Amino acid sequence: MVKKNQKIKGKKVMFAALDLHEHKTYRKYLPDMSKENFYNFLKFLRGKFEEDVYIILDNHPTHRSRKAKQIFEDGRRLKSQWLPTHAPELNAVDSVFSRIQRKILNNRHFTSIEGVEKAIDRWIRRFNVMK
Question: What are phi and psi of 101, to 5 degrees?
């Protein structure tokens, strides 16, 4: 079998968070990995929870922006917990990204970014109901 990666025009980034207690993935598609977009994703997450929740983060520069730190320090639901440097195996959400790559994106042809998003959303909806 020959592995074939996607080659379509356009780009979006999927920010994702994995709720380990509810076995649910939250995601938001945004144009790029900018600090502003990560901040917007954190605001999106904050709106999903009524209680305090810990966000486990790797050391990507986007995660360490001033605005991201402000949202963690404002005391409104989101708390940060940092993974050790160079320890991607500890980042549970990376397993979701890996599965999406293997099960949805590899060896498939999509004609648009929207088609990719729909395929990912369908898979995540199924993933979210499995316990």
Answer: -60, -50
Please state, as a whole number, how many other Cβ atoms lie within 10 Å of the Cβ of residue 40. Answer: 15
Q: Can you list the residues of the chain whose pLDDT is less than 70? A: 1-10, 130-131
Fold of domain 13-105+112-129: Nucleotidyltransferase; domain 5 (3.30.420)
Considering the entire predicted model, what is its pTM?
0.81
Which tokens hold the place of 58? 């790797």
**Which one, of 98, 101, 78, 79, lies nearest residue 89 by Cα?**
98
Nearest CA among 81, 79, 93, 73 for reference residue 56:
81
Distance CA 51, CA 87 (A): 28
Instruction: With beta carbons less than 8 A apart as the criterion, state whether 24 and 128 touch.
Output: yes
The domain ranges of the chain are: 13-105+112-129
What pLDDT, on the 0 to 100 scale, is given for residue 2? 43
